[in-house]
Design goal:
seven-stranded mixed β-sheet, about 40% helix, about 1350 residues
């Protein structure tokens, strides 16, 4: 029987849920606004079900499940099909679930020829008739019969309405989606599990494990697992590696057959009743139902969902000693010596007998040493599992306590810590949520002073918990009522996202909450606003919050049951002479200087070793005196301190704690400004827009880009199978001629600070361009009109000093009223254009962080109420101030933020006089100390990033001007002072031009009033609490303060230009990874294509090539040759600003097993061999690839924020190319295979034409002085031969080459000298005349 899905009343999608005959639960969603249908299937099994003898088996099963099936035996059939049709796919395993998903672009426009043809006639006819305001009658022009369904289009011009309907082919015809679904379904019905693929997939998992080991989040996760009771499923090692899946099983007597164990695991858990499928598509539900039944009917059914023996969360002993003995006798894959393995095993056995205390509540103190500079205190408590305790519409206890404990407003625990100068952040909520264990956490990000006072930080948290426990029932229920009301408001006004993201989410939520609550659970705590059930059904009444259960939950958050986890790089091992991996001598010396921050007892706390990563950590009982102190019953010493095992704790904080006030930012007016007629016309236009943008699918939204990229793992998850592809920025297109001016009038970023810089005709190009568009572009402009520029006139006499004249505003403002998405939301974005921001990125970063930190408490309530803001650098133009969310109070917030930004510099100097490091109210200057410390720490931590990140950064240093080394930024950040920042602030705002976009549920009058208010605020005299003396400001201008002069490297100004590599050149940069803990090496290949904005066809070809080569590159280098876990092919652009950027085709590989030189050689072999495959493509395959590439460009945005972002991209760069993607799609569809193959061969294959740049980063597994591979030896021979022939190569700092085939070796630190000798794109940058 079908189940009614609870959804928001504003959700126009159709839902249907049913159960197949084999027991598989299916949730269907019809979303007519999507053109990239998606499907996702979740299996109710994860790493918690791994057998003790095979850690990582669930993850391994996930990998092997996608390596072919009975009907589709090819190992890359699935991925190739997805890639050929413009899609994306991935799979993930966490502790509880394994889920798989895909999306493809389909060809609806190709299947709607009648509608497409009618629309072309319609657009042409209305363009000719709308000026006359005549009723359009063109029935006789259509060679198609007229019906009322399925295609209906309405559009209004002035007072006239035009309508047509045509009959077309069945909307359910989605061949690409149905084809992918058929392949996808066979993975679960009859996977091959080909034994020939086991070795390579084990290597893939081992590479994934190696990648994870440099993540501090992963490392901490392993420590938490180490202190967990062995009988708890959370203790299991979820990823697996070559040791657990190959070496240890082979060392057993008799050997354990992993292939056999995997098949048994799959047969037990991969059964239909243990699965849920979600499908999101524009097709009718009946068609989707038939497709699901056909594709998944053969999935085997078990007698019961879980039997006692195979229960995934069955508790039992984990025979660690026997397992690690096998590893020790095998190959020692845990990354430590055999003696250490035995020592760790014995220590774990001894600890295991006591670890029941973790579950029973004995308090503990755990010490964790990260790779990066982090200072944190986490307080964790085991709490009751509440997932099954109450209805899906009732609030869980952790929802209320997470809201109150994690609050950042005045009176909160965070506010007390921040005001004392001890914390930079605080979060609260579930840390572990599994059927057999739940852990609640409060985590504090500490300052240096907070680290010294970590005990008092804990005291503040426990004091707040006691405050919550003492609160009245009425008070708590009032807070819960507000939590519920805000959740309902957000639920009702949520906007649809990508089909892939939604299917991915729904399949798991269906398993957890059932199909009825898959959409609403955890988001809606009352059914009062949910859509009504079918006629005759009973609507579920509002759920009452279980306050008694919530108080019982809170009773577990005591100092007697806490596990306190301290994170600090200064921790060291007791009686250990061995250096930690990756720790440099200089780092150790620096940390040695900081050891005074720690008690003598704490310097040697790392006395236990985690078995999987080999990490040393500390684990001991929490001192009883500290537990008493946190409980509010300390034993005081004579001087007012607190005795704690010989350590004296300072007096408790006197901070004032209180429950939050009612949220004044919650909107009380959610009405829509667009009229019903305007919304109806917009809806019809939107439906038509989706129909005409043939090929469906398109412009990858943020969610789909994330899917195609390597997914970021959560605490327990691992994500596999994604063909990593960094997002491709849109190409820059030069501005067209301004109508009537006879020449291009581009405004160069360097002139943006001039008064009246935006007051030229260069910003009125849209109308002229619109008239020139034909076909698809013209229709797109009619159906989704871009914002329009407002002609602002000041209501007060006198413009800004030196401005364009009296009555003018210093503004370039664009506006669009939303009638499409029907949500009471808006996005207001303002560019403060100033070359100072790009010239000094360090002070720019400090300014943005300081404003965020200074307003963190005051505006926290706004973020809770769905109104968010940000101030961020926007190189090379300046700063971007943005407000987004519910529209009612958005303009007032933007105005208030502008005033705060204006007064920040003067207030910084004014508060510097009474800033105190010992705590207390220090004003803005006190926050400066915090943000400076954070920024310095981030720059220091950069060296610990992955090797592929360093490769990409090095390429940008060499190939784009105006870049800074991280070491330069670190030096500048350390030298900065409040005075220098105040001086920078003054310079930044002394010459600033404004460009903005107001889009959403706001009127034109609202936009104009907001523009006036922002203008007045920025150009009014600053009004701090007390004006700072001019002498002090002058001191700051000279670089005074505690840091002295702030010496900055030379910047290129307000633009970053790309280096133009010589034709036929090969340049290579080779260096060691900065972190010795990095075992992986990286190789980045860049093939420079040039300036695509001057050649649209070339840009279309490059996009098409990147799409087509991505899957075979991944399959060859990652899957079949096992070079590394991360393999990607993508477009990489260098430089920014009009006419200054250049694009390239790039390939990146992160490898633990293969040195970079060999990786480059094998990557080149693949790329050269693929040229023949490309040229030999069948015509229908090439046509499908073109349609898929066009589809990625054409899907209209699904959310207001997406559309606003699309328009802002044109406005902020002054391009105003409103039909950029339509033009690229048209150019793509017109391409011929021969011209695509010719460009690829010139770009990659032909050494006389290719412009190649390679970066090699060597991890510790591949020392840089190792014997060179064939590629490096050949390169050296080429260079020698070229030199002998007289083609001299200048070698100063790497130099330039004179021979096409000579590879030039470049020194990593000599990028500036090399760059200065190279030509740039373009030779002359067009600048606006004064």
């Amino acid at each position: 029987m079908a189940t009614t899905v609870i959804k928001a009343s504003t959700d126009k999608r159709e839902y249907e849920s049913f159960v197949l005959e084999n027991g598989l639960t299916v949730l269907l969603v019809r979303d007519v606004t999507t053109k990239k249908p998606a499907a996702a299937l979740a299996v109710g099994v994860g790493a918690a079900s791994d057998p003790p003898e095979l850690p990582g088996l669930a993850h391994f099963t996930e990998h092997m499940s996608m390596q072919g099936s009975d009907l589709f035996p090819g190992d890359n059939t699935y991925k190739k099909y997805i890639a050929d049709h413009g899609g994306a796919s991935n799979a993930t395993t966490n502790m509880e679930h394994t889920w798989y998903r895909f999306t493809v672009a389909d060809q609806d426009a190709e299947n709607q020829p009648n509608f497409k043809g009618a629309l072309e006639i319609f657009v042409d006819h209305t363009n000719r008739k709308k000026k006359e305001k005549e009723v359009v009658s063109f029935t006789m022009c259509l060679p198609y019969p007229l019906f009322e369904k399925p295609c209906d289009f309405v559009f209004c011009f002035a007072a006239c309405r035009y309508r047509f309907t045509v009959a077309d082919q069945d909307a359910e015809n989605q061949p690409n989606f149905k084809g992918a679904l058929e392949i996808f379904g066979r993975f679960f019905a009859a996977p091959l599990f080909n034994p020939d693929f086991i070795a390579r997939e084990v290597l893939a998992i081992d590479a994934e494990d190696a990648k994870n080991r440099t993540s501090d989040d992963r490392r901490l996760l392993q420590v938490l697992k180490a202190v967990t009771s062995p009988g708890c499923s959370f203790a299991k090692f979820s990823t697996g590696n070559a040791g657990t899946l190959r070496d240890a099983p082979a060392a057993r007597e008799p050997p354990l057959e992993v292939h056999t164990a995997m098949r048994a695991f799959h047969a037990r858990h991969y059964v239909a009743p243990n699965m849920s499928l979600a499908m999101v598509s524009p097709a009718p539900l009946a068609a989707l139902k038939r497709a699901a039944q056909q594709a998944f009917k053969d999935v085997p059914r078990a007698q019961s969902k879980q039997n006692e023996e195979g229960a995934p969360f069955k508790k039992g002993p984990f025979d660690q000693k026997g397992f690690f003995d096998l590893l020790q006798g095998a190959s020692g894959q845990m990354g430590r010596r055999g003696g250490e393995a035995t020592e760790a095993t014995e220590a774990r056995e001894e600890k295991g007998a006591k670890q029941a205390e973790w579950v029973a509540g004995t308090p503990r103190l755990v010490s964790f040493k990260p790779l990066r500079e982090l200072r944190r205190l986490a307080l964790l408590w085991e709490v009751p599992v509440t997932r099954e305790a109450s209805g899906a519409l009732a609030g869980q206890p952790e929802d209320l306590w997470a809201h109150l404990l994690g609050g950042e407003g005045p009176g909160s625990a965070f506010a007390a810590l921040q005001d004392s100068g001890w914390a930079t952040g605080l979060s609260a909520g579930p840390r572990v949520d599994q059927p057999d264990v739940a852990v609640f956490q409060v985590r504090i990000d500490l300052t240096e002073e907070g680290e010294r006072r970590w005990r008092e930080c804990g005291l503040v948290v426990f004091a707040y918990i006691r405050l919550l426990a003492a609160a009245s029932d009425d008070g708590l229920l009032r807070h819960w009522a507000q939590v519920s009301a805000i959740a309902e408001m957000k639920f009702e006004n949520d906007e649809p996202g990508s089909a892939l993201g939604y299917a991915n989410e729904l399949c798991r939520r269906t398993l957890l909450f059932g199909p009825e609550h898959a959409v609403s659970a955890g988001r809606l705590f009352s059914s009062s606003s949910a859509s009504p059930p079918p006629e005759g059904g009973r609507k579920e009444g509002p759920q009452e919050f279980d306050l008694a259960g919530a108080r019982s939950f809170l009773g577990h958050l005591t100092s007697g049951k806490v596990v306190a986890v301290r994170t600090n790089t200064a921790f060291t091992r007791a009686e250990c002479d061995e250096k930690d991996p990756g720790e440099k001598d200089a780092d150790r010396e620096e940390k040695g200087e900081r050891k005074h921050e720690l008690d003598t007892e704490e310097r040697h706390e790392l006395d236990k070793q985690e078995p999987w990563y080999g990490l040393w950590y500390g684990d001991r009982p929490l001192p009883p005196d500290l537990a008493d102190y946190w409980a509010g019953k300390p034993r005081h010493t004579t001087d007012g301190g607190v005795a704690n095992g010989g350590v004296v704790i300072g007096p408790p904080s006197r901070a004032t704690l209180s429950l939050p006030e009612p949220n004044r930012y919650v909107p009380d007016d959610l009405s829509l400004l667009a009229t019903a007629a305007e919304r109806a016309a917009a809806a019809a236009a939107r439906n038509a827009l989706f129909a005409i943008k043939g090929g469906g699918g398109g412009g990858e939204g943020p969610e789909e880009q994330e899917e195609e990229q390597e997914e970021v793992e959560g605490d327990y998850g691992c994500s596999c199978g994604a063909v990593a592809a960094p997002s491709v920025p849109p190409p820059s297109v030069p501005p067209p001629l301004v109508a009537g001016e006879g020449r291009a009038c581009a405004v160069h970023p360097g002139s943006l600070a001039s008064p009246g810089a935006f007051a030229s005709g260069a910003f009125r190009r849209a109308a002229a361009k619109k008239a020139e568009r034909k076909g698809l572009a013209a229709a797109a402009l009619e159906l989704m009109p871009p914002p329009r520029r407002l002609d602002l006139t000041s209501t007060t006499p006198g413009g800004p000093p030196g401005g364009p004249g009296e009555g003018s505003l210093w503004w370039d403002l664009w506006y669009k009223l939303d009638a499409t998405y029907e949500r009471p939301k808006a996005q207001l974005t303002v560019l403060l254009a100033s070359p100072q921001a790009h010239a000094d990125p360090v002070h720019t970063a400090l300014l943005c962080r300081l404003m965020s930190k200074a307003l963190q408490q005051r505006l926290y309530a706004a973020s809770i109420a769905g109104l968010n803001w940000s101030l961020s650098p926007a190189p090379p133009q300046g700063l971007v101030l943005s407000v987004r969310g519910f529209s009612q109070r958005a303009p007032l917030l933007l105005e208030a933020l502008t005033k705060e930004l204006r007064d920040l510099g003067p207030n910084l100097l004014e508060s510097q006089g009474f800033c105190s490091k010992e705590g207390g109210q220090g004003g803005v200057a006190a926050h400066f100390e915090t943000v400076q410390e954070q920024l310095v720490r981030n720059y220091k931590n950069w060296s610990l990033e992955r090797a592929d990140s360093h490769a990409a950064f090095a390429a940008r240093l060499f190939l784009a001007t105006g870049r800074w080394e991280v070491s330069e930024k670190l030096d500048a950040a350390q030298r900065a002072s409040p005075a220098s920042l105040a001086h920078f602030h003054e310079k930044l705002l002394s010459k600033v031009a404004l460009r903005g976009l107001v889009h959403g549920n706001l009127s034109q009058a609202d936009a104009e009033r907001t523009a006036q208010a922002v203008h007045d605020a920025l150009h009014a005299k600053a009004t701090p609490a007390a004006q700072a003396p001019k002498a002090e400001a002058a001191e700051g201008a000279r670089g005074g303060g505690r840091g002295g002069a702030c010496l900055l490297p030379v910047s290129s100004g307000a633009e970053s230009r790309a280096v133009s590599l010589p034709v036929g050149s090969v340049h290579r940069v080779v260096f060691a990874a900065p972190s010795k803990a990095e075992a992986n090496s990286a190789m980045l290949l860049v093939f420079q294509a040039g300036q695509l904005e001057t050649d649209p066809k070339k840009g279309a070809i490059l996009r098409l090539l990147a799409q087509m080569v991505r899957e075979p590159c991944f399959t060859t280098l990652r899957t079949r040759e096992s070079l590394g876990y991360v393999v990607s092919a993508f477009i990489l652009s260098f430089g920014s600003g009009k006419g200054a950027s250049a694009s390239s085709l790039a390939v990146s590989v992160l490898s633990k097993t293969t040195p970079p030189s060999e990786v480059e050689e094998r990557a080149l072999n693949f790329l050269r061999s693929w040229a023949a495959e490309l040229r030999g493509l069948e015509p229908e395959v090439f046509e499908a690839a073109k349609r898929a590439a066009a589809a990625k460009l054409l899907e209209p945005p699904k959310r207001l924020a997406e559309e606003a972002g699309q328009w802002w991209g044109e406005v902020v760069h002054d391009d105003l190319d409103w039909t950029r993607y339509e033009d690229l799609a048209s150019a793509t569809l017109e391409l011929e295979l021969a011209e695509v193959a010719d460009l690829y061969e010139a770009l990659v294959v032909d050494p006389a034409k290719a412009r190649r740049f390679a970066v090699h980063v060597h991890g510790n597994a591949h020392p840089i002085d190792a014997k060179p591979s064939t590629a490096e030896a050949t390169a050296e021979a080429d260079t020698a031969e070229a030199s002998a022939a007289g083609s001299a190569v200048e070698s100063a700092e790497g130099g330039r080459e004179g021979a096409d085939n000579g590879a030039v070796a470049l020194e990593r630190d000599a990028w500036r000298a090399w760059q200065s000798s190279m030509p740039l794109f373009p030779a002359e940058v067009e600048r606006a005349r004064p």
